[in-house]
Protein 1
Amino acid sequence: MPECFRSVLERLDKDNELLHIRKPIDVRYISPLIVQADKPVWFHDPISFDIPVVSGLYWKRDRLARSLNWPESELGVRFPRGVQKMMDPVTVEEAPCQEVVKLGDEVDLTELPIPFLGERDGGAFISAGVLLARDDEGVVNAGVYRLMYRSRNETSVDLVTNSDLRRCYEAAFKRQEPLPIAVCIGVHPFEMLCAAFKAPPGVCEMNIAGGLHGEPVRMVAAKTSGLPVLADCEIVLEGEIAPVGWTVDEGPFGDFAGMYTGVRWNPTFSVKAMTHRRKPLFQVIQMPWENAWLGAVAMEAQILEVLSAAGVHTVAVRVTEGSACRWSVIVSIRKRAGGGKNALMAILSLPDTKHAVVVDEDVDIFDAEQVEWAKTFRVQADQDVIIISGAQGKHIDPSVRAWELPKGQLPTTSKMGIDATTPEGISPDHYEIITHPFRDKVKLESFL
């Protein structure tokens, strides 16, 4: 049986990488305590709730690596192995996530200890749910979308930006039919990581998770729709997105870019069933960094994949922290003639990338001074800077002025690529770095 959310916590606890807070805690204080902690936190006794809260597993890159049980330096490299070794999920008849079943009027979301994540948030948000939906071709899509609490059996669902779930909903909305979905809370980091990844068309993200586990992910049929859900998760919310379109006010929300979104318009999710383990845990993803670092691994993997398809020999990839690990990318390559421009075109074709810098393999992309040196001395702006207008954008970026758009309309953005590789026709001798004489023969310590 593959590892699940609980076994990850057991492993972290064994390695002394989990902080336990056993004192009663007001759920309003969960968010500020998470960001102060130097480890993931298990809140055992939220006041007025019977369900403990776990959060902070992905707050920093090293914590994400420990949760995945991978070396930190191999995050972007290991993820593509799941794509290469995909496994179809297996269906089981009985599952831990359905030990308790509540249907119809029994559903009450106020049983969940949903905290406020940002001071100016417009409501309490479920942030760590993996949403599953079936598209018109029968493929089950998985993604991570925030849900704002509205009532005991209804939330809004964030479908502002372009996504597979939005496309599924648009097709159902055109037919004026509800879209059945399921939300799995408390999942293994592999499932969360894969849900944050834009899988190739026709591929279920849980097949990739199986490749990462090295064995198939266990699924069970949802009680109300038959939609496959993650058998070993903690809590499942079953229901449907109503065909009301982008009509319900939602937000503001402190998003993963570190800024608040404004009030948006989104559809609603009606919860028809809630199933869970007998003693479930409620996972929270705290903005901004948990979501950002989850996205970083998927972004680096996507960049490696698209560069490989473009025939670019990639040495290293880095998504930058200042861009919330998503919009800005630095890549070092083993260059052939024109390779810098080819790499830029491939990187900027990805929907989330906005700025890209490509350097030669002699530049350490994790050293900001070296990258700045390459941009300064290997770039002519009129020859080496690429600008693309009218590309796919995201509402979360204030510079696209999304508030000026009609309800439900997708924004566009401009993209920029900088080819900071050595220009063709210039000898490498012109970039020879100064070295100092006799540096191997004399040591300062000998003279002190």
Note: The mean pLDDT is 89.
Protein 2
Amino acid sequence: MQDRKNLSEIEIEEQKIIENIELNIWEALIPVIILMGMLAYNIFFADGEALGEYSNQFILLIGGGIAAMVGFFNKVRLKTMILEIWENWKSIFIPIMILLLVGALAGTWLVSGVIPAMVYYGLQVLNPAIFLPACVVIAALISIATGSSWTTSATVGIALIGIGEALGISLGMVAGAVISGAYFGDKMSPLSDTTNLAPAMVGTDLFTHIRYMAITTTPTIILTIIIFSIISMNIEPTGTADVSGMLNTIDATFNTTPYLFIVPLVVVALILTKTKPLIALGTGVVLAAVFAFIFQPQILDSLSTSNFRSLSNAIFTDTQIVTDNEKLNDLFSSGGMKGMLWTIYLIICAMVFGGVMDAIGGLARITRALLKMAHTVFGLFASTVFSCIGLNTIASDQYLAIVIPGKMYKQAFEDRGLAPENLSRTLEDAGTVTSVLIPWNTCGAYQSGVLGVGVGEYFVYAFFNWMSPFTTLIVAALKIKIKQLVFKPA
């Protein structure tokens, strides 16, 4: 879940799909093919810096420019494209504010001792042999309770990454486990906005949708936990032998006390009571700042000449707490709000490309072409899956990856005599969970920015996320519990 809006604020009926009869499928694909080619070259051959530090951002803008030229050629006005970009930008205002607050949260939770305390107690409780499956389960429970994969990553996710780093476990593995659990909980929680949005788009009810999702989601999460259990039993954490030394260093540097857990518990409690994410995260920042003065005055003194300046730096810029342990020095650093700017720029540029593609009718044209290829029931499911993944890639937004296929495939499912929950489940299996696997999608950019782990590093280990589309296709191919429409006699 992006936490962009409450469900009540999602204007489902006003979501419009722009179609352009002048545009053919090959013209719609031109910007996509060029964008994918440039991004692939930048990532695989130029180490992500073909055009400098912000290469991906520039490439997305170039892709948007190419899409605009295709639009001009097909009689789309500049004003239409600008309005769509503006609508996209308006929709990401809240996510950007959340990202800035998460940066501030990371900084204040560091100087207040919250993150060090989580690592300190976590190292004593979480055995390396069960650490990765434990990450999946913990993230899943928090996400089910809060309905938010974003909140899960910003709270327990950051702590679990810290513990994993201290143990010397691959951060890609840890992030993959956290994301797998977080998105399982996001899918299955009645509090999640995407879990409410998918059934609303196709005409079924929330709890029928959740029950039907369990058919594909349960085996996928069980398999995910089994895989992580096998990995955990076969890896040798490089930090295990140094745990006692790290515990002593944390204890000597920070005032570690269970009282520090009040801060994350308050944030989670606020989310559970349906408090706005901005308010909940903002409260976490303020409360951590107060705790920094109470519990860690020596840390604030060591960082700057003024305690208030130390706190300001933790919120807005870089903070580095130096210890006698090199691993902890890497762990106890934060970029504050400044550290989130690369991710924010990426999201803004992705919205430019997605907005132009939507304005010229490219998104609708590609989706409709995929729909025409569906000649069988399995083909219909497969077409839906590819549409959701494609829209996550092109539009960079998981809401559009649910809304557009939901509207365009609804009648096709009805014509085949398929109950609407077949479509709503597929939208979640392919739309919600794959968004985090696209680096420039708002979800992929958010998770990599918050956890500090690149999408390329955690992609393979986000087993639940990339296995979910395959599971829904296997279930469709084997015709397992494919619910039919029940027609009432006239």
Note: Residues 206-234 form the longest helix (29 residues).
